[in-house]
Design the sequence.
């Protein structure tokens, strides 16, 4: 039997000893792969996702990977601690320190390979279920269809094989075989009673309250900027939670005689304090890796929804057409016919409305202003299910889409509200109110007047054509 075969058989024949380390490593791979499935999902990785969101996802992926490294490293160190007696027996049989290091290296590479493959396959097996759960947990309005995540598989496999290789090399170099008597005694030596700091326990509670409180309170674009600070604060708080705060509460329960002396609570709390101290780092790593992964996924979707919502509010129509200023009426009609023909050929059911955008000279403003009659405005409003406007004969309604400032540093609505609209007979009508609407697309700041008054306006200085289509949706959204 060669040394490689010995290491391979050592893993296969001691499944119970290796299973905890294998499962913890496989779990880490599966969490990272789940994150990669979301990060590379077509619904998230399209062009509408802002670069800041992609940067945040990359940072979250890096944090997960770094914590995965420490989690696997700690799992392996705990695994090696449980094998002290085995190392002692091998040394008694003549094994050298170099051979033990080589054995640990080969074993870890073997376990790492199968853990990476197993974690990836487990992620693929539950990928659709994970996507379905995410749709409901994150309250995603659009479906997340299953896709074969080729890029996620490649990134996960390459990253973790590299991770296990470096951990194997690192551990094989720093591995120290203690005295033979210490190795044979193994884990029988006393560890001492776990202790906790009151100050660090209070700090843990404060950090968790601040971190999760901030995460709940921030909205919109602030979610992206708060993600990294919240992750750092919650990470430190979570570590202190498992290493200090949990031990502190257990000691408090032990000091309460009415609880500690009841039934088998003496055995429970005595053993629990040691177990919490021993497994604190493992609990911490598992909690942080999972939290960072799903927090990053939620942040990405929240930020994308924020951007998508803004784009939809500014562009409520499925398709709009605005010809060049010097296009003739025949060109415009031919273009609209071509668009309708394409939609019909592709079986896209869409409703269309078009109108002439007429601009008038406003002496008080020294500019050209769009004035639309109510009937034209209402046709476009009906197309996107907006409320129609019904101005009186002696009033005009100012419509703006957003609070964008003009070059003068004043909002368009403020200028329009301060000016009266002159009529042909020398009369004027005064604007009565300002409403926010995206009925005429990206146009920001114009008047809507009564149809009868519209015919009494002055000479048109400029006329544009606008057409818009709204796709008619039927049936339920398919998953």
Sequence:
């Amino acid at each position: 039997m060669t040394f490689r075969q010995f290491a391979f058989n050592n893993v296969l024949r001691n499944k119970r000893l290796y299973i905890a380390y294998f499962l913890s490593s496989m779990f880490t791979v599966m969490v990272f792969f789940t994150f990669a499935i979301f990060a590379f999902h077509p619904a998230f990785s399209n062009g509408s996702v802002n670069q800041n969101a992609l940067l945040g996802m990359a940072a979250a992926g890096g944090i997960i990977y770094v914590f995965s490294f420490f989690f696997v490293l700690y799992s392996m160190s705990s695994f090696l601690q449980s094998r002290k007696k085995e190392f002692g027996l091998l040394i008694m049989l003549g094994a050298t320190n170099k051979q033990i290091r080589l054995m640990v290296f080969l074993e870890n590479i073997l376990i790492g390979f199968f853990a990476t493959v197993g974690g990836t396959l487990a992620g693929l097996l539950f990928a659709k279920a994970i996507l379905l759960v995410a749709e409901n947990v994150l309250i995603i309005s659009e479906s997340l269809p299953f896709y074969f995540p080729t890029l996620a598989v490649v990134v996960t496999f390459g990253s973790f094989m590299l991770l296990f290789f470096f951990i194997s090399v690192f551990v094989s170099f720093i591995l120290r075989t203690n005295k033979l008597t210490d190795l044979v005694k193994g884990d029988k030596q006393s560890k001492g009673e776990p202790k906790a700091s009151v100050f660090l326990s209070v700090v843990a509670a404060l950090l968790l309250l601040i971190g999760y409180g901030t995460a709940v309170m921030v909205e919109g674009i602030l979610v992206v900027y708060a993600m990294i600070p919240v992750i750092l604060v919650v990470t430190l708080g979570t570590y202190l939670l498992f290493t200090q705060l949990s031990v502190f509460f257990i000691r408090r329960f032990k000091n309460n005689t009415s609880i500690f002396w009841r039934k088998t609570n003496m055995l429970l709390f005595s053993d629990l304090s040691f177990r919490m101290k021993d497994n604190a780092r493992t609990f911490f790593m598992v909690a942080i890796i999972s939290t960072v992964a799903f927090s990053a996924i939620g942040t990405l979707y929240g930020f994308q929804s924020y951007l998508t919502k803004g784009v939809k509010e500014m562009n409520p129509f499925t398709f709009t057409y605005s010809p060049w200023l010097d296009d003739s009426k025949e060109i415009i009609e031919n273009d609209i016919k071509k668009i309708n023909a394409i939609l019909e050929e592709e079986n896209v059911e869409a409703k269309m409305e078009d109108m002439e955008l007429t601009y008038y000279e406003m002496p008080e403003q020294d500019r050209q202003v769009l004035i639309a009659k109510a009937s034209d405005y209402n046709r476009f409003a009906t197309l996107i299910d907006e409320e129609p406007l019904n101005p009186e004969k002696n009033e005009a309604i100012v419509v703006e889409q957003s609070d964008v400032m003009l070059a003068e540093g004043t909002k368009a609505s403020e200028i329009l509200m301060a000016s009266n609209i002159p009529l042909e007979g020398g009369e004027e009508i005064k604007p009565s109110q300002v409403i926010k609407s995206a009925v005429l697309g990206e146009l920001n700041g114009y008047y809507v007047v009564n149809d009868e008054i519209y015919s009494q306006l002055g000479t048109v200085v400029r006329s544009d054509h606008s057409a818009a289509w709204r796709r008619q949706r039927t049936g339920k959204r398919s998953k």
About this structure: The beta strands are 319-321, 350-362, 367-373, 395-400, 421-422, 428-436, 446-449, 460-471. The chain has 16 helices and eight strands. The radius of gyration is 34 Å. Residues 49 and 304 are 6 Å apart (CA to CA).
